[in-house]
Predict the structure.
Amino acid sequence: MKHFSLILTIALTSSLLLFAAVARPKPADSDALDAVLKKMDTAAAGFRTAQAEFEWDLYEKVIDEVDDIQKGTIYYRRAGKEIEMMADVKQTGSDLGKLKLEPKFVLFSKGKVRMYQPKPDQVTEFDLGKNRADLETYVVLGFGGSGEDLVKTFDVSYVGPETVEGIATAKLQLVPKSEKVRNTYKQIFLWIDLERGISVQQQAFQPDGNYRLAKYRSIRVNEKISDEVFKLKTTGKTQTITPSG
């Protein structure tokens, strides 16, 4: 699929999203890993909704710095057997001192990723097609996804305990089983809240050494979210483009 890498990037940075060097996992701790995966299973079984404030950072190895930051609010909800996701990107910028208002909205629903940019009033729509099942795993990574599903898609290793902004977490390393996916993201780290079984931080490394880091704060689980949140606020003049290939 010609646009697989782009869609996967959207999926990861809309669900996920601290170290410039890759951490080396400690020897596998199977009991600790099993406990974390079971906690995720329990959280997934009772999952209905989630929302959080996010910050997505892109680190570029060639210039050795973060050159893109996006901040906003992300929402998830279970719709039947599926998970829907809406990311409301409110600010973007090359560094924290230069964030500017440049909104865009990314909606994942019914096997499609739709990105709406008020300027230039355009929706870019990707139909996941045969890649739907694989990419859905990345969209719900750490939010609504179970530990059981995680090990179907990744080789999972327990790195160790780590405190993230005062929250006790377990750090996991994920290596995609799919070679196609590894060509886009060779490994991913998740920091799982040991109390709630959800991800508070995610880091995805590309083969070239660049990485995307997602930080989640003010996480609220299983609270009512309006149906309107999961609708793109387009206008009568909005154009929709569907990349081919």
